[in-house]
Amino acid sequence: MDKANRRTALEFLEYLLRIVPYRVHTILTDNGIQFAEQPRNRGTTWSRSTRFDIICEANGIEHRLTKPNHPWTNGQVERMNRTIKEATVKRFHYDSHEQLRTHLNDVIAAYNFGRRLKTLKGLTPYEYICKIWASEPERIHHQSNPSKPGTKHVGS
For residue 39, what pLDDT is reported? Predict the structure, then answer.
């Protein structure tokens, strides 16, 4: 995203919920204002639900916040960010943001379709979703089709 604000957080969440082929049950975010009420207002009469929380609630998603000043709580995200940086901006020079975006899409596709992960027992993320679809179809939204990310079954 070009900007990390409430609008981009909402747009990302809505996009994510449309394209992932499985039900999201929990989201862990940091305490940024794009995700949560300002800390000084939490739990007070000034406190109110953010649109991010409203969307989570409407979709049965538990929205958890990391503990302030504990960045290691968000370790998986930080590790993935490091992986992406090592494959892109730390290795290559880009003449434009568009070049970076194009390369970033290629890196993410290579990761999802080609990177075998120990945590997934040697499967790629794509292979893992397909395996879950076959063995536990109730965990997958049937309007989505993992063989064609972002598409829907005809007739759904």
Answer: 58
